[in-house]
Amino acid sequence: MKLYEIAHSRAGDKGNTLTLALIPYKESDYPTLCEKVTVAKVKNHLHEIVWGDIVRYELPNIASLLFVCHNALLGGVTTSLAMDTHGKTLSYALLEMEI
Fold first, then answer.
1. Cα(38)–Cα(18) distance, integer angstroms
2. Whole-prediction pTM
3. Which tens digit of pLDDT belongs to each residue from 37-79?
4. Residue 21 neighbours by CB under 8 Å, 6+ apart
5. CATH assignment of 3-95, given 3.30.70, 3.30.1360, 1.10.3470, 3.55.40?
């Protein structure tokens, strides 16, 4: 199944660092996200977009995962010529991942 079937995502940025929050529609799916959505899987899925390290934070009190993706925005908002300098559409790229 694709992630978008059980979760939604929100992207943010700070310089050349992308943050991706992953939130299940139902809290009961949070353990599945913790098990299936590993740093290695996200790194493999976004390998053409994220060139640096990825750190995953588990936020059980709000049933969310936060991925901090370094070296992901082609230099960041002020230096990149990319169309989506803030990386907002990358939340959709994450949701396309098979789990």
1. 17
2. 0.80
3. 999 999 999 998 899 999 999 999 999 999 999 998 766 554 4
4. 9, 10, 11, 12, 64, 65, 66, 67, 91
5. 3.30.1360
